[in-house]
Amino acid sequence: MTEITEFNKTKLLNALGMAKKAGKIVTGEELVIKSIQAERARLVFVAHDGAENLIKRMTDKTTYYEIPMIDTFSTAELSHAIGSERKVIAVQDKGFAKKMESLMK
């Protein structure tokens, strides 16, 4: 994955918070997997400090279903952005996902 600047990391986390407020995200391992399998997920965030099997499972699912995955953030950063303790988040809105992907370049 390409290196994301600190400024873009902040903007990315802010966009994630806005997506949460708009009701366009799903959190939790099982709900995210169901969202991926139903092809509703557009972008998946996984905490880099999560369990190895969690990261592998999400990597396998996102690769198979060709969904972009971001593993740049820690659990604390993701949790702070959405206001609840989570290690896995799926963005289900095409507009939010496109904006977030543009910040990764």
UniProtKB/TrEMBL annotation:
<feature type="domain" description="Ribosomal protein eL8/eL30/eS12/Gadd45">
    <location>
        <begin position="11"/>
        <end position="99"/>
    </location>
</feature>
<dbReference type="InterPro" id="IPR029064">
    <property type="entry name" value="Ribosomal_eL30-like_sf"/>
</dbReference>
<dbReference type="Pfam" id="PF01248">
    <property type="entry name" value="Ribosomal_L7Ae"/>
</dbReference>
<dbReference type="InterPro" id="IPR004038">
    <property type="entry name" value="Ribosomal_eL8/eL30/eS12/Gad45"/>
</dbReference>
<protein>
    <recommendedName>
        <fullName>Ribosomal protein eL8/eL30/eS12/Gadd45 domain-containing protein</fullName>
    </recommendedName>
</protein>
